[in-house]
Amino acid sequence: MPTATKTKPKAPAPPPPPFKKQINPMDVHVGKQIRIARLAAGMSQEKLGDAIGLTFQQVQKYEKGTNRVSGSRLSQIAGVLNVPSVETFFAGGPGYPTNGGKKTDPFVYDMLASSDGLQMLKLWQKLSSKHRRAIIDLSNNIVSGP
Description:
The protein is mainly α. It is built from 8 helices and no strands. It has helices at 25-40, 45-52, 56-64, 71-80, 87-90, 106-112, 115-124, 129-144.
């Protein structure tokens, strides 16, 4: 009488790797625009969050493009920051050209999205052309090194 051989059951296949959320370039662009508008309004992330019923951490995620902003939330943000149109947040973004079809260089948005860059721009407007030239020369010397 033949004996039945026991075989080990196969182990289940490992689960697929977790889906890694891809950050959409337009979400990053819209987030930078929110940050630029917030800084221009002189408002902290905490104050903006309070005004729209969110934590500053959620505002931070919106500004980084980590979390997508819904249309209704974007409309709320525009109202609080006195941005005339929600479309302003999309202007210049991927596939959304402005300036007669010309795209703005990304470094412009990066500079405006920083508090130092925005402060520099505000001060720049108050300088005479002689002082502007001196700052440009100084900056070139610093960047070029000794």
